[in-house]
Amino acid sequence: MPSAKPAQKKKSAAPYLSVVLPVYNEEGNIYLQYEEIIKALKPLNITYEVIFIDDGSIDSSPDILRDIAKKDRNIKVILFRRNFGQTAAMSAGIDYAAGTIIVFMDSDLQNDPNDIGMLFKKIEEGYDVVSGWRKKRMDKFLSRKLPSRIANWLIARVTGVKLHDLGCSLKAYRSEILKQVSLYGEMHRFIPVHASWIGAKITEVPVTHHPRQYGQSKYGIKRTFKVILDLITVTFMGKYSTKPIYVFGGTGFIMFTLSILTGAAVICMKVFLYLPMNRNPLLILTVMLLLLAVLFIQIGILAEILIRIYHEAQNKQPYNVLETFNVPKK
Fold this sequence. Notes:
It is a single chain. The protein is of the alpha/beta class. The protein has eleven helices and eight strands. An eight-stranded mixed beta sheet has the order 7-5-6-4-1-2-3-8, with helices on both faces. The longest helix has 34 residues, at 281-314.
């Protein structure tokens, strides 16, 4: 895909690059982050905008963002009415971004703004998605790095998207790719997977990662379990959303086969071991647990499908905006 010439970018009224940062209780980091981003963007010699999405912060983050927006017209600020989660914040960033290229990054100073230029140049080389890889990650091993490695390995094996660090927020996209992705729940980490399904050209580059200086991390080891559940949903939506009978029919067939085998086992126990068929609690417990597990997974998948239909049919966004700054009226 041909890239625009620098001179054309400077003359364009619309920004060529949009940098999107979800914010939640980062009062100690926001201003420093803003200054570092502006310093990193100026040498690129392009038009840009920086979009801060405040996800219902309860500290002074909204006030700091208001002050920054008043001083700098290149800064867009969107304040949510309450906390809707990182996926909703990123979805809002996609909706409000006007750039041809969109870069996402965290607002906690752990991502290095100087890496934006490197991701930008990779997009200019012809890639649709450039994913950051925190090769030297400055986080705790047991609570952050180990669960992340397990999750990334599992996602790569199941989806076929071979990225080392899907959890890294620092990523660059062509906006035309992002506009085709609908985000709900906790699906932001799977954007490259969705992009791969529509034929996007994806690459990965090592990026700098700094230890957190101010504030508390919003992530914990429990996110690993969320990733596994989201992976089940993503896999289903990608492979079986148009042919669910393969999943539900296949599960039904397996259940039918198991019922024959367990029934045969009970009969054998009755004939050869003289055990009563109606007094075998272990068999009953096994069958009940298996049925419940299957039912819960299927209900979860159906709920995901229904919520997507609900949002997309009504064009309903997964967030609610309280206030915006420097955002043109539609």
